[in-house]
Amino acid sequence: MRVGLFVGFCIMGLALSGCGLVAAPCRVGSAVLKIVPVVGPVAAAPTDACANVIDPTPTRS
After folding, report:
1. For the packed helices 40-54 and 20-34, what is the interaxial angle rounded to 10 degrees?
2. More reliable by pLDDT, 42 or 17
3. Which of 18, 24, 49, 60 is the most exposed place for a label (fewest CB within 10 A)?
4. What ranges do the domains of the chain cover?
């Protein structure tokens, strides 16, 4: 029973490996940082890069 559960979780993890759901925390953090005037876009650049590595979808700036 435990082996089947472990295999099931591994398969689910592989299915979500490139998913936008996994990149959501990076994208939300980036959006919050972009609200800050002047330095927001510069501070959000690393989180944008993180999200694009996980899920390479084009984002609007």
Report:
1. 180
2. 42
3. 60
4. 18-61
Asked whether the whole model's pTM tops 0.70, one would answer no
List CB contacts of 57: < 8 A, sequence separation 6 or more. 20
User: Which CA distances in Å does 42 have to 26, 37, 39, 47, 49?
Assistant: 15, 10, 5, 10, 12
Tokens read off for 31? 């959006």
The per-type count for the chain, helices as H runs and strands as E runs, is: 3, 0
Phi, psi angles (nearest 5°) of residue 18: -115, 20
CA 44 to centroid of chain Cα atoms: 13
pLDDT tens digit sequence for 15-41: 665 566 777 788 889 999 999 998 999
Q: What is the pLDDT of residue 23?
A: 77
